[in-house]
Amino acid sequence: MTTTESPKHTITALVEDKPGVLNRVSSMFRRRGYNIASLAVGHSEIANLSRMTFVVEGDESTVEQVTKNLHKLVDVIKVSDVSIQNCVSRELALVRVRANVQTRSEIMQIVDIFRANIVDVAPDSLIIEVTGDEDKVDSLQNLLRSFGVLEVMRTGTIAMDRGLSDEQTDKDNSGSTHRMESGL
Amino acid sequence: MVCESLIREGVEVIFGIPGGAILPLYQTLPEYPKLRHILTRHEQGASHAADGYARATGRPGVAFATSGPGATNLVTGITTAFMDSVPMVIVTGQVGRSAIGSDAFQETDITGITLPITKHNYLVMTAEEIPAVINEAFHIASTGRPGPVLVDIPKDVFEEMGEFEYPEKMDLPGYKPTVHGHPNQIRKAAKLIEESERPVILAGHGVIISKAYDELMELAEKAQIPVVTTFLGIGSFPDDHFLSVGMPGMHGAAYASLAIDQADLLIALGMRFDDRITGDTSKFAVNSKKIHIDIDPSEIGKNIPVDVPIVGDLKLVLKVLNERVKPTTRVDWVQHVEDLKRDHPLMHERDTDELLPQHIIQQLSELTDGRAIIVTGVGQHQMWAAQHYTFKEQCSLISSGGAGTMGFEVPAAMGAQVGRPDKVVWSIAGDGGFQMTMSELATLAENKIPVKFAIMNNGFLGMVRQWQQIFYKKSYVATGYSGNPDFVKLADAFGIYGARVTEKSQVKSAILKAMEHDGPALIDFVVEQEENVYPMIPSATSVASMIEEPKPEEIRQ
Q: For residue B521, which of A151, B72, B324, B514 is within the disulfide window of CB 3.0 to 4.6 Å?
């Protein structure tokens, strides 16, 4: 799915929803010199537990060390390496782009192709909301560049394995549809 | 609340210094006569003393300090303990809850500061959490791979009244160390051992922490495997055992480094392939397969690729492994390692009248029968202690291995002696490190803690000077002490026994006198100034670059 120059891995972690947990996690990344390409945090399906999604740059051994060191943090309950081939990964971005009477319709066409939305219209600009994997968001951003991208805000990737894991099959089967773009 | 919880955890001794924010806790101490508080002269002393206590007893050391500078003064001690996996619980006072974040007097974000140097830390915001937090702190500090845990408590939380209820079980869903090794992996390890012709065990601090002494001995003897010990692994296997091959690495014995290099199987037990052992990792032990057993999964594969990784508690893993390992004889290999020892002695005999630190340490070893607890600082004297003291007892070397903290030798020796009053504790110190923490001599005198100090006084930051000599053409920048104090007068000022030795002939009687003295004692050994530690493998190189013995012109300067 991803075709970037440096290998990227997606790791998710179930963590205690306590003050300072994000600091512990980011401090570990900083101290060990690991690169985070993106980081997204939000509530999980369990009360008092949050889920973090990291996109990490590095080779296999680096990712293995990241996983092990995440595990070592007392507030981290579970760490999963989300397989790239078999997962759904999404990111939400808001893009403010320069738009005038001449360019507006062209931009709207691009937005349509990307199944993105225009969420704000001003006389000389538009805000576009786009959801997709990292590549899709990158592509849209590139296409809009010629019009003048004024501001970009991206949530960072969140990811989930397709299908049920053995662990989940044991539990109840509810809640298998989800709207990813509203999670953050 | 705090004291009550400490009593439940079996705490007997606390090292610390009071101050404004922690005063409410201190004022409750008289109600708990079972808790012995030792007032140190500096918080760094308190944290190193708790560390020394923990290493000597295997139980978590406890230190108290107040907010702000009190807490930050602990930091070097916490780092030292963290690097060497030493269990410690530190309680610091914090400014009142409403003042947190306002840059109040003596406020500092100590949980933020110690985040990367503690195994875990807590800021406790209500009194009723205290028992559960202390309970968890001791559990986390002393299980799995041990380490320091800091508990920061605001002043008004100490004062808050609450129902004391000690938790019966802990709620730590994210903390479950793996203790049992995977049976398949253990089977593979046994097979590798069976197939190997030239195995070497590399025993680390984990053997001592896990108290796997007997299991290590059984494995070594049953399968006839020579045992090399890391610096902190000294004391995991008796130095006088015929299978003992000493310490390898930068300043290790040449025969130990060579044995590792020539081995076809390296069995690494509770160690972390530190750069002082491996040097250039791409050239380290390239001829061998590797079995690595450690309780911390993140240590496995971190520096060196491993063929058979086993995560678990060493004692439990070795028990299972020993059952699977078949008794073997490896006459040729064991004999070959013996030959290495003969052909590459630690120190070539020198007919000299100079007062050499190596000779002093050898004397100390003989006069204590290799059975004292040796605490050291960091530098040349530390390496000489590792090389020339014959450690016969379990867990008998206490030293800052990972962090390399100078000044550790004074307070850590104090903590070790408090924890083990039955033992003779010798602190082998450098004149540099000793001056960093010598204020604790007052604590020793006050509490009549009978530590004996052997200061290897060469008037230099010796190890740094050695590097300057070898790598910077003898340009001794900022390493010479031309104004050292008179250590004997200093001892006198602190009210402890002091003596000076300048001649080789005085060494034995001075050591004996210090040991006969009932109380702390100090010997100022004015040693040869420019003696170097050999062998030496320059950093980031390999055993092929080892400098084994001094060149003749270096002996005759």
A: B514
